[in-house]
Design a protein that fits this description.
The protein has helices at about 5-10, 15-30, 30-40, 60-65, 80-90, 105-110, 130-140, 155-170, 180-190; strands at about 50-55, 70-75, 100-105, 115-120, 140-150, 195-200, 205-210. With about 210 residues, it is α/β, with parallel strands linked by helices. Strands 3-2-1-4-5-7-6 form a seven-stranded mixed beta sheet, with helices on both faces. Helix 5 (about 80-90) links the parallel strand 2 and strand 3. The longest helix is centred in the C-terminal third of the chain and has 16 residues, at about 155-170. The chain is globular. Bound molecules: S-adenosylmethionine. S-adenosylmethionine binds near residues 55, 106, 124 and 128. S-adenosylmethionine binds near residues 54, 106, 107, 122 and 128.
Length: about 210
């Protein structure tokens, strides 16, 4: 879908937020929904995996998985601020050489990227209008498994997202958050040849792990 999503997303995820996220990661470790992804992926017992982390933010998933189950990773992100923090952290951990960092809207450059064993999208679909385009491209790139987190379809999140988007409009900021239909995302991934093998819920986030059949 031709759009200026990368530009919009880049300005929405600023240097200040990226620095706050890395501070929190150093202090408390991975966020709760990210822990669910890590736990689910580790349960597959895949060794020496190639990881594709779409919208990886400060890179927590590859920082963690390069310790045990991943051989290498590609981190594609529309935010240059997040990528900068992710790169610095990877270097601090001695993983710099094993991660390829790409600043782009994944849907624009997916055709140029190789497939990976595992694809992750942690809190990414809710920042992107076209969930079909994003998830289809993500599924195309996964040889074995795909794990994602997204906001639950609850009354309190429907209300919260409406309020957030209302203030975004007032501020004339084009960035929006999206509560995409979970059944629609699930049907799309099943049509792409995956089955859902794990589903976990927190108050805001749901984590689903899909395995290629
Ligand atoms: C809410 S942040 C989540 C970051 C990280 N995954 C986490 O959970 O901490 C959403 C991230 O997705 C990225 N993003 C959103 N849509 C994207 C797209 N189409 N291609 C690449 N990155 C995207 C944003 O730049 C941002 O870094």
């Amino acid at each position: 879908m031709p759009c200026n999503c990368c530009e919009i997303t880049d300005s929405a995820f600023s240097e200040a937020e990226a620095r706050a996220d890395i501070k929190s990661y150093h202090k408390r470790g991975p966020a709760d929904q990210t822990k669910l992804i890590l736990e689910a992926l580790r349960s597959l017992e895949i060794k020496e995996a190639e990881l594709l982390d779409i919208g990886g933010g400060i890179g927590v998933i590859h920082h963690e998985l390069l310790h045990d189950m991943a051989r290498g990773a590609t981190h594609v992100d529309a935010s240059s601020a997040y990528l900068k923090e992710a790169k610095e952290e990877a270097a601090r951990r001695g993983h710099g050489e094993r991660v390829q960092f790409v600043h782009a809207d994944f849907t624009d450059i997916a055709a140029d990227l190789p497939k990976a064993d595992i694809v992750t999208l942690d809190r990414v679909v809710c920042c992107y209008p076209d969930f079909q385009g994003l998830l289809k491209a993500a599924a195309d790139h996964s040889r074995k498994a795909l794990a994602l987190t997204y906001p639950r379809e609850t009354w309190y999140l429907r209300f919260g997202f409406k309020v957030l988007n209302f203030f975004q409009r007032l501020r004339k900021d084009p960035f929006r958050v999206f509560l995409h239909p979970i059944a629609g995302m699930d049907a799309l991934l099943k049509a792409e040849g995956f089955e859902r093998i794990t589903l976990r819920r927190l108050f805001v986030w749901e984590m689903a792990l899909y395995q290629r059949i």
